[in-house]
Amino acid sequence: MTVATAAEHDRMMAVIQGLMHFSTLVVAETMRDIGAAPKDLLRYQSPIYQIETGIIGRILGQDAALYGPILQDNPEVREVVTAFSAAAARLQDIVCTHDTDGFAAFFEENAAFFAPVIPPGSMETTNRLIQGGLVKK
């Protein structure tokens, strides 16, 4: 158990739940919009992408009444999803203008931020999921 104030809890949940659910739903909407059917993609996906698609299916297989309040009722979520949109716009500009240096900087900035959980941590976790038979090999 983690002891926190209500404000601390809401801030962390805005990122842990709000950001993750928001980004997952945006990916689902994007796939639907471009006609990339999940069933068709499975033939091409490596295990790590099967995990990501599985997470989308897991969330969408549940009740919208669970996820709506997580995104809409926590007052901290608005700031987080606004930052998500700004980050997506920044990366979109880098990708669409083929800004190789900009992409390298974007990537390196985020790699530095995530350094505490970059391999072996991230690789070990995802390898356990893959090797544990949770996804098709």
Percent of sequence in beta strands: under 5%
Count of separate DSSP helical elements: 7
SSE pattern: HHHHHHH
Helix- and strand-based class? mainly alpha
The poorly predicted ranges are none
> What is the rounded distance between the termini?
35 Å
Number of individual domains: 1
- Count of strand segments: 0
Q: What average pLDDT do the residues reach?
A: 91
Detailed description of the structure:
- The protein has 137 residues and is mainly α.
- The protein has one domain.
- 74% of the residues lie in helices and 0% in strands.
- The protein has 7 helices and no strands.
List the helices and strands and how they pair.
Layout: H1 6-34, H2 38-41, H3 47-60, H4 64-72, H5 77-96, H6 100-113, H7 121-131
Helix pairs in contact: 1-3, 1-5
Properties at a glance:
137 residues; mainly alpha; single chain
Short recap of the structure:
This protein is mainly alpha-helical and about 140 residues long. The chain has one domain.
